[in-house]
Amino acid sequence: MRMDPKQFREYMLIYGTDILNWPEDMRTPGLKALKSSLELQAILEDEERFERVLRESRYEDPDPDLAERIISASLQKEDKRPYSVAGFFSDIFWEFGMPNRALTAVSLSLLVALILGFAIGFFYPSGAISSEQNQINLEAFLYYEGDVL
Fold first, then answer.
1. Which burial class, exposed, middle or buried, applies to 30 when counting CB atoms under 10 A from its CB (0-12, 13-18, 19+)?
2. Tens digit of each residue's pLDDT (9 = 90 or more) over 43-71
3. Which residue in 21, 19, 56, 22 sits closest to 40, CA to CA?
4. What are the C-alpha distances in Å from 88 to residues 62, 84, 96, 113?
5. Domain boundary assignment for the chain
6. What is the dihedral of CA 54, 56, 57, 58, to 10 degrees?
7. Is-contact 7 30, C-beta < 8 A?
8. Helix, strand and coil in the chain, % to nearest 5
9. Radius of gyration of the chain (CA)
């Protein structure tokens, strides 16, 4: 059985870098592939170095006051400005602002014009029905095609 580099990498990741610990049917082809390929030798060296670093690394307990430091740091960054409507809108515009100030100004002016248009249309509707027009519609309804309903 011949082993290609892809299979060698898979077995190395599954069984580790010590080829002598591989299953017996994979051990001999793995050793032959390793001897014949400089690329696989370099990959094996890198993986051995990585495993050595993992074995030698130690877990360090966090400082007992870590949670307190995190909470105090977040409280220090709290905004102390008084609440205002202008500050609220300023924060919104900066949060969703555009990089080009001219484009932002045009967008805001179009938004204000749109809101004003809706307000004017709502308070002063142009399609108001006059009482005379209402009377004509009522007569047209009652005398449909010349018959009285």
1. buried
2. 889 989 988 888 888 878 888 888 888 88
3. 19
4. 39, 6, 13, 20
5. 5-56, 84-125
6. 130
7. no
8. 70, 0, 30
9. 39
pLDDT digits (tens, 9 = 90+) for 107-141: 888 889 999 998 888 887 666 555 555 556 666 66
- Rounded to whole angstroms, the Cα distance separating 117 from 25 reads 81
Range with lowest mean pLDDT among 2-11, 31-40, 84-93, 110-119: 84-93
What's the rounded Cα separation, in Å, for the pair 17 and 43?
A: 10
Amino acid letter for position 147? D
What DSSP string runs through 2-31? ---HHHHHHHHHHH-S-GGGS-HHHHHHHH
pLDDT of residue 112: 92
Q: Encoding tokens for residue 10? A: 């898979």
By the 8 A CB rule, do 126 and 120 touch?
Answer: no
